[in-house]
Design the sequence.
């Protein structure tokens, strides 16, 4: 039986929503009646097909904004565009992310800068632009998609782990600042989900460790998760919908681990 989370007519921005976790989350919000601002990389015809399909399937408005997550001006423009088009902004999901895997002594400086910009700084810039709108409304929901790597570390991921730990600090600080304005800010910390990003990590880890991709899957990726299973999009969406609904009004500044028991070890 479908659950109604009371989100009909709300407006949500989901960064990095042209594929993977972000796309699944945008679709879940659209299914609840939210109007969506999609954002992310990809081939424009494919993005347009995905946008049109989401709008038609769920009977909502879906816009695409191509803000580059390394450019603060474009991020702020995305938030302004959402408010200009829909008159409000109820939900911000900071999901955009990139990855590079290498030993710290070999880690390229440009990759470090890119990962910090996309995985951490973009969430700051989007939140900075969104909070005044949400304060004026007297309500808002900010959900940062962190990672189990926001709570623990793994080798060869210095930039990613640093960025995700930073997201946890940003989440807590914003939560305290907005707590009396009807706004919440929380983080979802997934374990491994079989997204294009993780599939690329499997190949990168195999190269870095000098082992096969099958061995990476068995001995590296799912070795971290006691369930030995990937986290699914539906499992993440369930937590997202709780947090952005009125049911989640007292959840604030928290990290929600959806990781098959990874961080419990």
Sequence:
């Amino acid at each position: 039986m479908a659950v109604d989370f009371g989100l009909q007519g709300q407006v949500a921005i989901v960064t990095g929503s042209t594929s993977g976790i972000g796309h699944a989350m945008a679709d879940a919000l659209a299914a609840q009646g939210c109007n969506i601002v999609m954002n992310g990389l990809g081939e424009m015809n494919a993005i347009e097909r995905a946008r049109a399909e989401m709008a038609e399937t769920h009977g909502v408005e879906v816009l695409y904004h191509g803000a580059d997550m390394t450019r603060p001006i474009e991020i702020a423009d995305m938030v302004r565009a959402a408010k200009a088009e829909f008159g409000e902004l109820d939900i911000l999901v900071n999901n955009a992310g990139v990855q590079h895997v290498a030993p710290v002594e070999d880690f390229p400086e440009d990759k470090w800068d890119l990962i910090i910009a996309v995985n951490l700084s973009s969430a700051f810039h989007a939140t900075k632009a969104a909070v005044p709108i949400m304060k004026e409304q007297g309500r808002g929901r900010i959900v940062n998609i962190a990672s189990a790597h926001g709570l623990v570390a793994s080798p060869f991921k210095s930039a990613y782990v640093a960025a995700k730990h930073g997201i946890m600090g940003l989440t807590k600080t914003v939560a305290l600042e907005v707590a009396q304005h009807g706004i919440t800010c929380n983080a979802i910390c997934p374990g491994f989900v079989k997204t294009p990003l993780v599939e690329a990590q499997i190949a990168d880890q195999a190269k870095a460790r000098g082992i096969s991709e099958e061995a990476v899957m068995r001995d590296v990726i799912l070795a971290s998760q006691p369930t030995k299973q990937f986290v699914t999009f539906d499992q993440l969406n369930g937590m997202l919908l709780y947090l952005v609904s009125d049911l989640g009004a007292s959840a604030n500044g928290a990290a929600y681990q959806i990781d098959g028991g990874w961080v419990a070890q």
About this structure: The chain has a mean pLDDT of 95. The longest strand covers residues 183-190. The chain has two domains: 11-191+231-259, 192-230. Helices lie at 20-31, 44-58, 72-86, 109-137, 158-178, 196-209, 213-221, 233-244.
